[in-house]
């Protein structure tokens, strides 16, 4: 079987809710990343066989196959198709898996895996809220409710359950959040994100161009202190998590270009990394966010590797208890985890986070001269994707 290689990566800098990316239509954000991947790789746009794009809230401006709309807004020819993927927070990581599987099978030679989410223009939970307002049915069917009687699936409840089950106190969560900001600040000041960020022109409220480019992740708190983080009120009374120890609502897009050996030769591109392993796993949908732990253990077993074989980890910081419990259970080196900060500081643009983390992981491996990287994230419904890459 052929192998899958990443030959180009890119992401927008994260935008706060109502912030610097609020004036940009999500389709256009995704199109800019697609164009950047073509430019950075130097390939003929017509050589792209497909665009697979992750997006969670596929409604409103992100409806009607947002992937195809992004193609039509980009410099790609109309001959390039597009399809949209929803695996909740792992949507674009799953897009990467589908892209890799396509080129490994030989059915395609060059596929763009990407993701987009404008959490300003299409707020979180909109797909659930609109039917409720119209008096339509909810996503939980009678059969689901029979299997899980009285259960309301909630990521917030899941985060608190993990904190309690793993004995992670609030002060530990606060310190972790501060470290996420400190690492993101250091990465920004050292230029670690310079080659991965796709500059996007900021639009004013009336839609006109501002002339200013958005190139720095807007969620980073450069003045963050342990005291300021600790002072944020709890999400739930008696709980341990706060908004400061959770991922930030974020606007953004990201993507990677994936090819096989035939694509490397035909397109004349050089690989940045090789897909070494990819898998996905379902787990308890009630605690929901714990899935990266067993998914990582199984992925390592399937890959014939140990946790210490991995040089860098990207574990999405949906809530601080998630990576902390992952570290505790797997015995991983915390110095290798989210070395440039995570979603607590940089933001979590839902459907875009998968290829966003992969973009950062591939670049961090290159900058540090490391070989293997592992990416995983918790996903709604109690799932987790795991991707292991080898830098080339």
From TrEMBL:
Q: Which residues form the Thiolase C-terminal domain?
A: 270-391
Q: Indicate whether Kinase appears among the record's keywords.
A: no
Any Pfam family? Thiolase_C
**Any idea where the Thiolase N-terminal domain is?**
5-261
**Keyword rRNA-binding found:** no
Record-linked Gene3D superfamilies: 3.40.47.10
Assigned keywords, A-Z: Acyltransferase, Transferase
Name the domain of life this protein comes from.
Bacteria
Q: Which family does it belong to?
A: Belongs to the thiolase-like superfamily. Thiolase family.
NCBIfam families xrefs: AcCoA-C-Actrans (TIGR01930), PRK06504.1 (NF005077)
User: This chain belongs to which protein, by name?
Assistant: Acetyl-CoA C-acetyltransferase
The species is Variovorax ureilyticus
